[in-house]
Amino acid sequence: MDRNRMQKITPNPKNYFVLHRIIVSSLVLLLSCTAASGQQAPYKPLISRLAKDLDTSLYTITIKADKPPLLLDLAGSLVWSTCPPSAQSTVACGSAECGGAASQECPRRCLHVDGGQLGDSGSSCACAGNPVTRQCSTAGLTSLAMSANATDGAMELPPEESFAILGACAPDSLPRSLPAGVTGVAGFSRRPLSLPSQLAAQRGFGGKFALCLPVFAIFGDSPVNLTAPGQAPGYVDYTTVIPYTPLLTNPANAAGYYIPVKSISVAWHEADAQAILPSSALDLDPGAGTGGVVLSTATPYMIMRPDVYEPFAKAFDDAFTRGRNVPETSVERVPAPKPFEICYNAGFMRLKRPSAYDVPRIQLELGAGATWKNWTLYGDNYLVKVGGALCLGILPMGPGGMPVDGEPAVVMGAKQLENNLLVFDLEKQVLGFSMLLDFALSSCTSSTFFRN
Fold this sequence. Notes:
Cathepsin D, subunit A, domain 1, six-stranded mixed beta sheet, 34 strands, alpha+beta, about 15% helix
């Protein structure tokens, strides 16, 4: 994609963020009576704990006061949860707040679990969507109580703060197939009713948020101090040293975060293999609203459209075969359990460090505007150990289609984002990415944010 095309699909960052502030301003007035009043603006950034569900490989966030966790969905447009009857539908459907929610249409391929349509009852003006089952439901808007600690970028600061955001009450059937104990979804998109957008509008601490899966999320313009071996706690603010790339917007999936990937290659020792893709295979088509490379925390593994996956798999196998530096061993393919397509016998692979296998690097070459030309995927961001095998956690799109709105060419799933510091700057419309923090002598777990 050339610079001119990219400009057509990239919104003006300042105008986009101002629009969000205008839309959310009325929500702030609605919630002011329920939000905590003990601290005066400007507020400090907030930090929340994340966790990985081992059964689904998805991530949850604990932010609802004394309530079960919510699924973290990067493309989610709002926050929803099952609610007791007394908490449901507290916002009238004719209100400005409800109008703003109704303007965020349900996904095109959403399966309604209740058969309803937005606004066909007195209070159901929001669309709550389950990104795992692709089901959705009409939902009533209400004020959701939440709590989190402030942070100075190095640790959480007591006491815990209480606040409220506008969310949706969904039927008890909607959370099916979410991680055990999860009662809803916390949307992290650029839309006005997402969790980061509402917090930025309420608290005035800047239009940024950071994720370091599976440990923490930070809301607000904050440093993120991580620790490397032999260094004092919080020695480096990683937001100042990581590369950044533009965030693109797909008109067909305005909630999604897209990045400008131009090509894909695989390298191992002296073997380099380029994936020979069809022309413009990775480009985002602003007219059709298809293609592009999008990030997702609701999809466990990277998924590629067949015309991208087939040449990529060939390049990976080529680099894997030619790049071995232990001649007396052989690369042994083993049967791949579902959902995986390619698995190898882990017995022949050597550890180059106690925590990492000596395996190929996958390079995503970024386009114009990036301060770093490659996003490198190391083994821990694409290999999945299954019994005695190591499987490629990159999958072809299934017969049911791409499980993400807008039919992207590639979805970077939760596995590819794990143990990466990701900084989403919604004012500048750029994404900071550390790549695998192990290779920066740090990790998400090396943070000192939490006292216990």
